[in-house]
Design goal:
Helix content is 37%, strand content 13%. The chain is an alpha/beta fold.
Length: 476
């Protein structure tokens, strides 16, 4: 059984010998096996039991890292040396990484235990985890429903108690949306706050790495470990890293923005009511609210899918059957090898996005689509810059609905893309956001609420989340 609320409490129990780390890791391995039907993991690393013994000795000796004994699952798009790196795609079926991503290096240095790699939409492209060569991931609250995507396996791993914390990636909502559907905390940091070195690129100017957790405290602890500049990633920022974990208490009541564009037609009524219930409680606790406007919000989905597919088209050109990954047998010639390897190696959604991206970058369409979308991206970013002149944080829904049925949207790409209506603008602007679980709907499905802050102000997100959690303002 999980008998601790957060990592701090877990360390305390290990030091008091109330729990054994080896038993704890074995418990998670057993849970993964028992819940195999959820299909959350692509690969499990049973040798982590040996690591548990080593780290338990370090804890008992008093010399241990910040994450000592934290059992972590990793989305199968991040490189772990000598472990498979498939991106849930047939084209990387037998590929094994030859190095560790920077995030992985930081976790290992602080004595975390990596238990396995989680299932996801192929190359992180999807909102439902129905685009994986390993098959669908199931929502633990209702196995007929999706867990969200693309980091569905990572969200389920935390929600179903298969690990302490997990890692996902967020290009347009791929941490926050599954966190909302599975009832856990999910943080997308500021673009550049966390190194992307060792992350298999989908859309390089959008991709962010972040954690799923059961508490704000563990989310803050993880961020304090993984944040910071990295010489291997030129887009990583040298902005100072806050001690997020020990800076969770608010020293003043924040001004909170409510964007009118996010609470219009199309938002599930139960989600809307749950969020306004939290807002009322925050008002009673002395927080000031202000209605704001994000006038270019209506263009976010179109802008996002033009720019990300363009970047995906360029990034995925390297999978050609020549250098690594899947290659057809006995090609007729070089061109045949390229065409057949990519046709059979990539799944339907990935091929759709490559074709869309190639189209918007092609001669005659570049100015009409890609160049125009870049200009609109700046307008969307400016909307947030203006909003944060008068508010500290912004509260919005994370998703328009709770978890939908498996197969419900798979044949309607536009409807699937609209599930990202409240999350893509954050990636376009490069700002941080967190999903916090705030209750359940009439079908007992989790409801998520999103908190946004200005660039590199993750401390405000975490403080707001912690206040809501600590003061029991959540509905469940």
């Amino acid at each position: 059984m999980i008998n601790y609320k957060n990592h701090r409490e877990k360390i305390d129990k290990i030091l008091k010998k109330e729990i054994s780390l080896q038993d704890n890791v074995q418990y998670f391995l057993n849970r993964i096996e028992e819940n195999n039907n959820l299909n959350a993991f692509n690969f499990v690393f049973p040798e982590c039991i040996d690591k548990a013994k080593e780290i338990e000795n370090k804890i008992l000796s008093g010399k241990y890292g910040k994450l000592a004994g934290m059992v972590i699952a990793i989305k199968d798009v991040l490189a772990i040396k000598d472990k498979p790196l498939t991106c849930s795609s047939n084209i990387l079926k037998n590929f094994v990484s030859i190095y560790d991503a920077t995030v992985i290096q930081k976790l290992i240095k602080e004595d975390a235990i990596i238990i396995g790699k989680t299932n996801c939409d192929e190359f992180a492209m999807g909102s439902s985890n129905e685009n994986s060569k390993f098959g669908n991931v199931l929502n633990p609250y209702d196995n007929t429903r999706v867990p969200g995507g693309s980091s569905g396996g990572s969200a389920v791993a935390v929600a179903a108690d298969l690990c302490d914390v997990s890692f996902g990636t967020d290009t347009g909502g791929s941490i926050r949306q599954p966190a909302a559907f599975c009832g856990v905390f999910g943080l997308k940091p500021t673009y550049g706050r966390v190194s992307r070195y060792g992350l298999t690129a989908f859309a390089s100017s959008f991709d962010s790495i972040g954690p799923f957790a059961k508490s704000t405290e563990d989310t803050a602890l993880i961020l304090s470990v993984i944040a910071g500049i990295d010489k291997h990633d030129s887009t990583s920022s040298n902005n100072p890293v806050t001690d997020y974990m020990n800076n969770l208490e608010l020293n003043k009541k924040l001004t909170i923005g409510i964007p009118k564009e996010y609470f219009t037609e199309g938002l599930n009524e139960e989600i809307k009511n749950s969020i306004f219930d939290i807002i009322d409680k925050l008002k009673n606790n002395g927080f000031e609210f202000k209605e704001i406007t994000l006038p270019h919000n209506q263009y976010t989905i179109a802008t996002y899918y033009i720019l990300t597919t363009a970047e995906a088209s360029a990034n995925l050109a390297r999978y050609d059957g020549a250098r690594y990954g899947y290659r057809i047998e006995n090609p007729k010639n070089l061109l045949d090898m390229y065409i057949e390897s990519r046709s059979k190696g990539f799944g339907k959604e990935v091929k759709r996005r490559i074709m869309l991206g190639t189209y918007v970058l092609s001669s005659g369409y570049y100015d009409a689509y890609y160049k125009k979308a870049q200009k609109v991206r700046q307008l969307i970013k400016n909307d947030f810059i203006n909003a944060f002149k008068s508010v500290d944080v912004i509260i919005t829904p994370t998703t328009p609905t709770t978890a939908f049925k498996i197969g419900e949207n798979i044949d309607d790409p536009l409807q699937m893309y609209l599930n990202d209506i409240y999350t893509t603008s954050i990636n376009l602007a490069g700002i941080p956001a967190i999903n916090i679980p705030i209750g359940k709907d009439k079908n007992n499905l989790p409801i998520g609420m999103q908190i946004l802050a200005n660039q590199f102000e993750e401390d405000k997100l975490l403080q707001m989340s912690y206040f809501i959690e600590k003061n029991r303002l959540l509905s469940h």
